[in-house]
Amino acid sequence: MQILNSILTWVMKKRIHQIELFKKYPLEVQDEVFKKLISTARYTEFGQRYAFDDLVNYEDFKRRVPVNTYEQLFPYIERQMRGEQNVLWPTEIKWFAKSSGTTNARSKFIPVSPEALEDCHFKGGKDLYSIYITNYPDTQIFSGKGLGIGGSYQVNEYDPTSSSRYGDVSAVIMQNLPPWAEFIRTPSLETALMNNWEEKIEQIARETADVNVTHIAGVPTWTVLLLQRIMEAKGKGSILDIWPHLEVFFHGAVAFKPYRNLFKSIIPSDKMRYWETYNASEGFFGIQDTKDSEDLLLMLDYGVFYEFIPAEDADKEYPEAVSLGDVEIGKNYAMVITTNAGLWRYNIGDTIKFTSKTPYRIRISGRTKHFINAFGEEIIIENADTAITHACELTGAVIDNFTAAPKYLERSKQGGHEWVIEFKVKPSSMEQFVTILDETLRKVNSDYDAKRAHNLALVAPTIHSVPEGTFYNWMKKRGKLGGQNKVPRLSNSREYVEEILGTTV
Q1: What does the alpha-carbon distance between residue 158 and residue 155 come to, in Å, rounded to a whole number?
Q2: CA gap 461, 326 in Å, rounded
Q3: To which H or E segment does residue 396 belong?
Q4: What is the pTM for the complete model shown?
């Protein structure tokens, strides 16, 4: 495996000069991507509808093609699900990434073209290794195996030919991995793609406990459950007692900050590294590229053309988007993508902030539908993650999961926020935890601070500490265990809070 580590490390490093190229010429690379997308799709049904054949430039594109939600693109996607081709994209669509999101009960089916697989998802995975190796040239990451928790997939029952499949994006990727990538991962493909989450966890624990695992990739919430089960099965108090050469956790999908202390308790080593990514059913978008910052390098040559809508305008019927060259640092944007799988001006539902333009680096700030703004406070996920992380640090608390929603007081104009938190380790003082949470929110969000002043419109938050397993049981009840499923952090509705609290009664 040592020889393999040397060979793969050398191969991965070769990509770096191309990454440096789009860092140096970002707008030119994006323009190239844009022109290629338009040219490739000009004879599709969508391309003909919007006359891609004589489309001159980006401004022309903006005038002709509206910004689309999933619901607006769904009539096209539904036809593709039924086996029609050349609708949104010219190459054959045989795979769909099933994404339930967190706010909508109805599943979304995101088309995955051969180009999206090869030039976006796979390229993102390879670049993740390349960038990591560049930062840590002494890595032994390929001397062992990478642990990945896949989702599951099934035959597309909507397709009368039964020639297409759908499932979690992780399952779609795993099923199509090249041989070299399959060789360096564990567990077996059969186990990784099992449908029953609870059975899968047990089987993965059995298969991987005696494997030399050097790196892990996954969603923090479900990865924690797996690691805890493996430690329990082996009777160990630390995952390093099982995998002594484990060096990095590649994570994404949810903010890692609130989970950092929980991972430290499972992996008690200052040498353990945590490396962030931004990938979704729709594509691979960003990779942490320096060890000194968790900001994400926006990957510009993956067949994805980016636009950005100021977050305050995202819900408008005809929102005005800007291209990469016109963004501002620190401003909250809803991200819009046009992809090599036929998602045209698609509002992905994520909000981001630029931290740099040389090169273009971003931070994920939240979801367009995940916020609390019942009283004009405009709390976003980034605010919540910062506040709860700070409260944990100062009170010694370790959390497993949380969500929050507005609380309306009867016969009063005052309201507040109600937090439901599952603690692994409870805070030294719950009163202090609440105070720090509240004070931090006031520091990072001026609107919240103004509403909290003198209890003018908001009273101090209420926190419910729920028993271990509460969120797991709630997700299980909703049929959302494992895969890309995530607990909604914030909601302007009380639906989730009341459901979760109801499970503890």
Answers
A1: 9
A2: 38
A3: none
A4: 0.85
